[in-house]
Amino acid sequence: MKNIEIDDELYQYIASNTQSIGESASQILRRLLNLDPAKATVKKLEPHTVGLEKETKVVEEVKEKPVVTSVSKPAASVFNVLNKEELAMQKGVVGRFLFILSAFYRTHKGAFKSVLDIKGRDRIYFAMSKEELLESGSSMNPKQIEGSEFWVMTNSNTTRKKMMLHEVALSLGYSEDQAEKIRDYL
Asked: How, if at all, do strands 126-127 and 151-153 pair?
């Protein structure tokens, strides 16, 4: 069995080159490296969880000799689900803002509630309902974060939205450098 550890940037690169649902990391790498996909057939796929990392064991058969390969994935990261092409297709700053927040929610459903603590001096930025946001101030322009029960105030300038994304990233456990990178996606 071979274990390969890769950094977040490489994992993101491999994930961003997925061409079909269910395509394995091995299949993606074989395609990117122009290796013959027929030489490795996946026999068995067994997901395992180790701490916060997910590990997938793949048994492959190459010229009748079984090879076991283990691919370790980093803990859930918004960088694994944010697709730059889809992000660029969003309509304006508000569209990109909501798209990034939706990616955060999909990646961190259990911890996303922490965004409710992110507030301005006089108003809240996130809530569980449109009405809750409207009650906290005027000109909120609340929008629901796609795929979630959370709402966000969108009537703020781009600088404020960047600050909000930065705070969301920090509240979900990202490093300062990662939070700045996410903020710059807007």
From this structure: antiparallel
Of the candidates 89, 91, 97, which has an alpha carbon nearest to the alpha carbon of residue 183? 97
Q: How wide is the angle at C-alpha 16 spanned by C-alphas 10 and 22, nearest 5°?
A: 110
Three-state SS for 161?
A: helix
Q: Residue 85: pLDDT band by 50, 70, 90 thresholds?
A: confident
This prediction's pTM? 0.59
- Cα–Cα distances (Å) from 101 to 43, 74, 97, 104, 127, in that order, read 38, 20, 6, 5, 13
What is the residue-wise DSSP string for 95-133? HHHHHHHHHHHHH-TTTGGGGGG-B-SSSBSEESSHHHH
Encoded tokens for 97: 């803002």
d(CA 13, CA 121): 39
Distance (Å, whole) CA 172 – CA 111: 7
Three-state SS for 77?
Answer: coil
Each residue of 131-180: pLDDT tens digit?
999 988 888 899 999 999 999 999 999 999 999 999 999 999 999 999 99
- The single-letter DSSP state of residue 54 is E
pLDDT: which is higher, 23 or 109:
109
